[in-house]
Design the sequence.
């Protein structure tokens, strides 16, 4: 008797092939390079120049500045870069064509998320090194490890937000517009809200926002001796953001643009 069963390729081979293809697309995208690397490096350069002009201007300390640069890089690459790329591939039929291959559906999106997390990790390392150089600061080995860990958590938060956005919105144009609006809102909320310019209520809202929570953690991990209940709360909030937005992005995601 002839065995007519279709044999699927090994799962590891499928995932490696998808990741290789997604990584090549990511590297060849000029917008990705700008969003992932130019944004945090530009922030580090600007804050360094201003600090040299006014020695009394600390921007909350080098750790806060480096954390802010990494945060902005994560927000831009996830809410603008990742979500727009997935929405575009869905609209032109790339995702539908991948679904008819032997690759399980979870590996198609899993590959993209893993590749983006790797890109975020590389960006974090570059920003940590560049920030230490331009701001002439050296953290303890534990400090670097904790900053890196917070960056990974931040990458998960904003990637889950990007996945939720592309899950709820199908139009590429709308995804692009919504991503840019969310980017501006989150950045302004993180900056103006945290400064207290918008009042105490908005300051509290800013502390618990995704950008505010991550900024709070960046400062907290460099001074563990003053760790507070608020720091624990924003840490829990970050994991909650990942769970909630991740669920939304997976549950409501559609493979076709209609």
Sequence:
């Amino acid at each position: 008797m002839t065995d007519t069963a279709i044999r699927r390729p090994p799962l590891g081979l499928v995932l490696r092939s998808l990741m290789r293809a997604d990584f090549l697309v990511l590297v060849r995208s000029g917008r990705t390079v700008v969003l992932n690397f130019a944004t945090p490096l530009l922030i580090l350069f600007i804050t360094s120049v201003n600090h040299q002009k006014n020695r009394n201007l600390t921007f909350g300390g080098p750790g806060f500045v480096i954390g802010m640069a990494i945060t902005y890089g994560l927000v831009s690459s996830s809410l603008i870069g990742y979500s727009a790329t997935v929405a575009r591939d869905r609209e032109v039929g790339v995702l539908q064509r991948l679904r008819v291959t032997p690759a399980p559906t979870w590996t198609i999106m899993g590959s993209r998320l893993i590749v983006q997390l790797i890109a975020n990790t590389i960006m974090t390392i570059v920003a940590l090194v560049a920030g230490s150089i331009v701001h002439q600061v050296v953290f303890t080995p534990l400090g670097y490890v904790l900053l890196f860990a917070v960056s990974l958590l931040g990458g998960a938060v904003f990637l889950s937000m990007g996945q939720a956005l592309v899950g709820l919105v199908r139009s590429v144009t709308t995804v692009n517009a919504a991503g840019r609006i969310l980017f501006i809102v989150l950045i302004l909320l993180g900056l103006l809200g945290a400064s207290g310019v918008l009042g105490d209520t908005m300051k509290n809202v800013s502390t618990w926002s995704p950008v505010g929570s991550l900024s709070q953690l960046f400062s907290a991990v460099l001074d563990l001796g003053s760790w507070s209940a608020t720091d624990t709360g924003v840490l829990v909030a970050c994991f909650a953001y990942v769970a909630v937005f991740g669920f939304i992005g997976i549950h409501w995601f559609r493979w076709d643009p209609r």
Residues 11-251 form one domain.
